[in-house]
Amino acid sequence: MSFQALQIFVTFLFIKIIDDGLEIRWLGFEYLNLTASFSSSLYTRRLWLFGHDISSASLKLL
Fold first, then answer.
1. How does DSSP classify residue 62?
2. CA-based nearest residue to 45, from 33, 57, 37, 55
3. Segment 21-51, tens digit of pLDDT
């Protein structure tokens, strides 16, 4: 009976290690996604500000 308990424990531990690894990998993927979306929103904001500055400058020329 003790050997079966050890087998169950080792199996549980192995599954837990794999599950934690996948969770860490998933968190890393979410972090990359968040970083990419944040940098793209900053890029979009910069483009919008740049376009706004050009529009303001062209209106001043008229």
1. -
2. 37
3. 666 666 555 655 656 665 555 545 554 454 5
**Residues in the chain, total:** 62
3-state secondary structure of 52: helix
**Matching residue, tokens 């209106």:** 59
- Tokens 């990998």 correspond to 25
- DSSP state at residue 34: H
The reply to whether the predicted model has a pTM over 0.70 is no
According to DSSP, residue 57 is labeled H
Q: How many CB atoms sit inside 10 A of residue 18's CB?
A: 10
